[in-house]
Amino acid sequence: AKIRRMMDENKQLAQRIDGAIQCAKQEVANLRAELTATGHRLAELGELEEPGEPQEHQQQQQQNHH
């Protein structure tokens, strides 16, 4: 009976581990998607800012955004 109970506990533990892994995978997928989206936004912003602009001009643009 004791072995049976230990086997059941093992099964429950395995299920909990599987659940935790699934949650972690989902979290990683979410973070990757967020990172990709942020990367795209940064690329877009980089394209908007023309190189060779004076620093003051950029600061004025940032203030206008807020």
TrEMBL record:
Residues 57-66 have a biased composition (Low complexity). Residues 44-66 are annotated as: Disordered. InterPro entries: Kazrin (IPR037614). This is SSNA1 protein. It comes from Cirrhinus mrigala (Mrigala). The lineage of its organism: Eukaryota, Metazoa, Chordata, Craniata, Vertebrata.
